[in-house]
Amino acid sequence: MALSLPDFTQGGRDSETSSSRDMRVEVSVGKWHLQITVDGNTVLQEGMELSDVRFMRKGGLYLAVLHPTSASLMHTSRHRTFEETGDRELLRVLTGVQPGRVLVLAAMHEGFHQLSDLALTWLSDLGSLAISDMTTGDRWACVWTQGGRVWAEGAAWAGYYTRFIQQGGPLHLYAYLPRASHHANECKEWPSHGLWEDRQQFCGRYEGYGQLCSCSDPLPLPPQPHPLSQSQAAGVEYGGIPTVVVASQRPLCLYWCLRRLMNVEGSNPTLTLVVADGDPAQGLTEVRALTNLFGIKFVSSNSGGNNVTLRITRHYKVVLDTAFTTFSTAPAIIILEEDLFVAKDFYSYFTQLAPVLLRDPSLYCVSAWNDLGRRDSHGDPAMVMRSQTMAGLGWMLTREIYNEIIQQWPARDKHADWDMWLRLPEIQRGRECLVPEVSRTYHFGSTGAHLTAHFHARYYARASFNTHSHTTLSVLDRLVPARYDAYLRELITGGTHLNGSNTDPCSRTLLPQNSTTTYVLWIKMNDASDDYTYMGVMSCLGLWNLDVRGHHKLLWRLRWKGTPLLMVAWPASPFSSLKPPDATVLIRYDPKESKEDPPVAFYHHLNHTTTTTSS
Question: Which of 51, 63, 291, 375 could be stapled to 298 by a disulfide with Cβ–Cβ 3.0 to 4.6 Å?
Fold first, then answer.
């Protein structure tokens, strides 16, 4: 069944009254195909096979933005709205499109399964009559002018039967709309020289950039350096850390990243470099033009190949080589990905920790990201911890370690995942990274080479993120290995030890909230690979549960609703000797299984006063 909308605002046209100057937009959506043509030219085409459905490679909502005069394609993107949070980036793009542009939005294969109420309201408010009725299996398309009217909308509903759903469609939608004049969408208030001329050309070719292309309130460009204040730089031996942004053919992600980055104290466009992987003559044209507007150094590379993991690993080598060559005197460099927001104190955080990294040979890196921090953990932004995991997602590497690892980097055709490779024991060599209890980056990109919207919602969307403009990090001299271990021993011996035999990590009353008391939970772990109990506990706490990470000698410093919690692996952790005789160990806990497990063997340990339990 198709929906034919009436001409409900003035200025609408149909095929009988259309002019030869009108723009003709056609949208065809079937079970396995989507095609958008403008004036007879295909601007977006997608075909699906059964394997694409199985692996979720295609489908969702597809967006095309057209120039209202030339009908040229200004933006195209696909959004996985069949997954939780899959419409966040869609809304970010839609709200960034300038008034007067023509937008085409179409659903192919499960475009509505996880469409949020916010998205439904937004689309209804722009004039959609059908969007609130769309559901699984339906086909839908809409053509409208941003800030103007809906020109055409069509829907084909699925048929629901006892044992199956018959997909809706095919849907064929036609729209005829008048072209805007050549100067209707130019910003007449802007100067016509220098960077403003480049900006006018950029905004006439590309869309989704919001304030960057706003005629009435344009983003100030180029960005000016924002040096750290005296209070932030006081007592710091090292400043002006260069930053390299790892990019690809995702210019809007890069824009959102750079806009935030260039607005925080400590940022400096002359100390910022973008290294992007892709086709320099096509996919990277927009990226290059964007970085030019920001006055930032830009280098392109084409790592080649169809294997995404291999390509990214190749690209990271180019990134590191280019960064340390470009900033040839810098003792350390910050590596940032294009789909990360930075906290207000991003540079303050790294500037305070750079001297610690440079003088401590037991350290591998400094990371802005805490794998095990949640927003509702109410962590302490002043706390920094040692971790045996190279967390990435905004990290600082010294030139000395770069010179060491780059000689061992995987050969061009050797399959390796760059971050997993950096964590290999023979590469990391027992060195640790410094991580914050509250993260200084936020992973806003909901999809990527190894990322789906569902995965993002599960592991990144609720991550901690510091909102303070400056935080003085506490007791940095306590981060050296001996003092750090001594401090942890003090916390263990002075803490309140939970009874593992009757502790339920899934309980909403696991601990008192916002307590200053440190609680200690001993969990059964023979070695780092014995992760059965660990995975169950982390699942209960809503933290990363895909592998063992974020620990120091198998001791995890966590925060549960404002209350500090130490989780210690027994007997694998060297801190196991500190377990009081009356403290029992949480063994073989899994929230999906019965808590009654078969008895386990007694684990001998050097501290003969340690006890175990099989319950």
Answer: 291
**What's the mean pLDDT when you consider all of the chain?**
88
The fold for domain 239-475 equals: Spore Coat Polysaccharide Biosynthesis Protein SpsA; Chain A (3.90.550)
Give CA angle at 120 (114, 121), nearest 5°. 145
User: For residue 571, is the peptide bond before it cis, meaning its omega torsion is within 30 degrees of 0?
Assistant: yes
Instruction: State the pLDDT at residue 609.
Output: 37
pLDDT top residue among 607 and 567: 567
Over 90: is that where the pLDDT of 136 sits?
Answer: no
Helix (H) or strand (E) holding 385: strand 384-387
Domain spanning 480-578: which CATH class is it, in words?
Answer: alpha beta
Q: Which residue has the higher pLDDT, 505 or 55?
A: 505
Q: List the domain boundaries for the chain.
A: 23-177, 239-475, 480-578
Strand order in the sheet with 171-177: 41-47, 33-38, 23-29, 171-177
> 0.85 cut: is pTM over it?
yes
499 vs 203: CA distance, rounded Å: 62
Q: Which residues lie below 8 Å from residue 595, measured CB to CB, with a gap of 6+?
A: 589, 615
Query: What pLDDT is recorded for position 230?
Result: 61
Q: Cis peptide leading into 222, omega within 30 of 0? A: yes
Pairing of strands 563-571, 519-525: parallel
CA distance 549 to 422: 14
In the three-class reduction of DSSP (H, G, I as helix; E, B as strand; rest coil), residue 348 is classed as: helix
Instruction: Select from 141, 151, 110 the least CA-distant residue to 14.
Output: 151
CA dist 292 and 288 (Å) reads: 6
**What pairs with residue 571 in β-bridges?**
525
